[in-house]
Design brief:
17 helices, 411 residues
Length: 411
């Protein structure tokens, strides 16, 4: 089967062992937090920000800002400043299986693993989007410069059709596997042979939602409401709600009459933003929305259907606020009313990931998280930060997970 190398070179091979032979996997890793890795990420950030070709892709611009030296050094300091009597070392070979739905996401775990000093093999989707293609072009351009030769020989981005034997070849040689892509991907790789002590970081199917305190929203002025709608748009529409952290449900919290007043005002403001952005649902998305609506009617769950304005967001209110149908994305939301965060805490499930929120105090949120009793959620962030990647993601402290801790005690 043909395997396509995408970076640091663009080449095709008939055999994975020809592309990545044992010499690749037995290379000595760089040290954890080696200055070369920090400088490379800084150079990549500068290149992405300076390139006119990347300016039309907000996800790439966001990545470039995330890779800035001050940000990267803060990640390193957060790890190194809390440990005494120990040393961090690379795990060895890191295999990254990138998700197809948010195809630039691999760069975040790849950047952290490179910073950790690991050798990296990244498998991306065979159907690259324009942002992914642009990002790979920029990455390849940088890795081909002589200054980064030490990194170019230790890192590879490739793609191939789903193939169990190739997956097995890579899995058997990995010391850590970073498995994005949902339950099916995680299950498929866990069934493969691997090193006895392989360290898996898994990112299965997740569900995320938003909570808005009704009184706080009603008290917000027009400028604040517009800002919230634009931030919510970024959370939901950048990846057509396909990102694991993008909201699928909007919970309005408070007395029912206040929720009934806040909800239509919020959706009207969001509709205005969506139309201003020129984001139009495709015919396939429109059909998915229609099917979703009929399914809820057939299940007896449809309580209310929002205005069906062409191009605007679609939303429905269900009979049971805890009911979770399979979502279709593309601007389809569930609207729900709950009296308090305590009531919302009872609806939290084990596969929940991100809650974006507005109008609650730090104490409110802390009590809410404690009330969930660990049943779910790994992130609670303000509206607008659903897609803001952090080294602490989905319950993992990634820089620590991508390295090993060696105790160092001397007299």
């Amino acid at each position: 089967m043909t395997v396509h190398e995408l970076a640091p070179e663009r080449r095709a091979y008939d055999d994975i062992a020809e592309m990545l032979d044992e010499g690749f996997f037995t290379q000595k890793p760089l040290g954890a937090f080696d200055v070369l890795g920090v400088e490379f990420l800084a150079a990549l950030s500068n290149q992405l920000l300076a390139s006119p070709a990347t300016r039309g892709f907000p996800e790439i611009v966001a990545l470039a800002y995330w890779l800035r030296p001050a940000n990267v050094r803060r990640f390193v300091w957060d790890v190194e400043s809390t440990e005494r009597g120990a040393a961090r070392v690379p795990r060895g070979v890191a295999l990254h299986i990138a998700p197809a739905n948010v195809d630039t996401l691999f760069m975040y775990s790849f950047a952290l693993s490179l910073l950790a000093g690991n050798l990296n093999v990244v498998r991306v989707s065979q159907r690259p989007t324009a942002p992914l293609a642009r990002l790979l072009d920029e990455l390849r351009l940088l890795l081909q410069q002589p200054a980064w030769e030490e990194l170019a020989c230790r890192n590879c981005v490739l793609t191939y059709a789903h193939n169990k034997e190739i997956n097995r070849y890579l899995s058997e040689r990995a010391h850590v596997r970073v498995l994005w892509g949902g339950d099916a991907t995680v299950g498929a790789f866990r069934a493969l042979p691997a090193k006895v002590d392989v360290h898996d970081l898994v990112f299965p199917d997740r569900f995320s939602y938003c909570a808005i305190e009704a009184d706080a929203y009603l008290a917000a002025d027009a400028e604040r409401r517009r800002s919230l709608a634009e931030q919510f748009y970024n959370d939901a529409y950048w990846f057509d709600q396909k990102a694991c952290s993008s909201p699928q449900v909007v919970y309005f919290v408070g007395p029912t009459d206040r929720c009934r007043a806040a909800a239509p005002a919020f959706w009207e403001e969001l509709t205005s933003v969506v139309l201003a952005k020129g984001r139009m649902a495709s015919p396939a998305e429109e059909m998915n929305h229609l099917v979703f609506l009929y399914e809820q009617m057939a299940e007896g769950q449809l309580s209310f259907r929002g205005p069906n304005r062409p191009g605007g967001p679609k939303y429905v209110r269900l009979t049971d606020p805890g009911y979770r149908p399979e979502m279709c994305g593309g601007g389809m939301f569930i609207e729900a009313f709950v009296a308090s965060l305590d009531e919302l805490a009872e609806l939290v499930r084990g596969n929940d990931q991100t809650l974006t929120c507005f109008g609650f105090s730090q104490d409110d949120v802390r009590r809410f998280v404690q009330a969930t009793a660990g049943r779910g959620l790994s992130r609670v962030v303000p509206i607008g930060q659903a897609l803001s990647f952090s080294p602490r993601w989905d319950g993992y402290d990634l820089l620590r997970e991508l390295t090993r801790l060696v105790a160092v005690l001397v007299e």
